Amino acid sequence: MNIKKASALLDLTPDTIRYYERIGLVPPLKRDKNGVRTFEETDLNWLEFVKCMRQAGLSIEALHDYIQLTVTDDPATIPERKQILRDEAEHLQAKIEELQSTLNYLNTKIEHYEAIFLEGNHTTLPPLPKNKLEKN
Question: Which of 20, 47, 59, 121 has a Cα at 20 to 30 A from 38?
């Protein structure tokens, strides 16, 4: 499979795929006799993993470290790989909690406006949740 087909399949631009290869987020891709990248299932799996981890918010540095440890295929690196994923899972959980708090606040504001327009209740807006105030 060529880069155009891989790009369409993974919903990544060809430039993104080239960049991920250049900085070592995927193992070096095989090339045909003309130097054109060819993609096999393993390559697509790596790219899908990188895409998923980037969407989850993993930094390029953490992802690079994880991948470099993984490609060595050394069982001694498993604890370090696991710790990278744990650290990133904790970071993602904190982000989810922050987003949930923001969503809750927005829903409260929406309910307030519904009360104003549907019930004629013109009370003041509810206060900002404490955790939002403390971060400023």
Answer: 59
What Rg, from alpha-carbon coordinates, does the chain have? 22
Distance, in Å, from the CA atom of 101 to the CA atom of 111, rounded to the nearest integer, reads 15
> pTM here?
0.71
Nearest Cα to Cα of residue 43 among 34, 54, 61, 30: 30
What does the pLDDT look like over 4-23, one tens digit per residue?
A: 999 999 999 999 999 999 99
Burial letters 50-63, b for 16+ CB under 10 A, else e: bbebbeeebeeebb
Sheet strands (E) in the chain: 30-31, 37-38
